[in-house]
Amino acid sequence: MVRLRLKRMGRTHSPYYRICAMDSRSARDSRAIEYLGQYDPCNKDEEKQINVNTERAQYWLSVGAQPSDTVASILKKAGVDPTPGKKG
Question: Which pTM does this prediction carry?
Answer without folding.
Answer: 0.86
